Amino acid sequence: MAGITARRHRKRKLKAEINVVPYIDVMLVLLIIFMVTAPLLNLGVDVDLPQSNAKSIQEKKDPVVVSVDSAGNYFLTLKAGDSQAVTAEALQARVRGIVSQNPDVAVFVQGDAKVNYQKIMDALVLLQSANVKKVGLMSQPDQSTQGRR
Q: Coiled coil where (predicted)?
């Protein structure tokens, strides 16, 4: 019986430590998965959505305003009140010249409510081909919401 008791004393004592190696392996696998999938999550298109009850924009310089009337004719306003009728080619050439001198100039499109939406889109395409980086759309405030504020 002496041999049996001696074997019992030779057994290893229990360790009160946590083996963190498997947790580190899992963490590294998750890190690799997130690093691979994170760039795939940014496949959206940057769009500045319109805000309701927006305040008017205060510009230090006069903006360039492209107007489209109800007949689909283009007008270019360089300074407040100085509006000139232009063709599509002339509009593109003049805006390209303005943007080449001042790339940060504000360009706005003002369309008549009765004009075909395709004419507004054509104006936006003309401005894009004239190297305009940012274009804003102008609108009138809704008169029915003015009294509710």
A: none
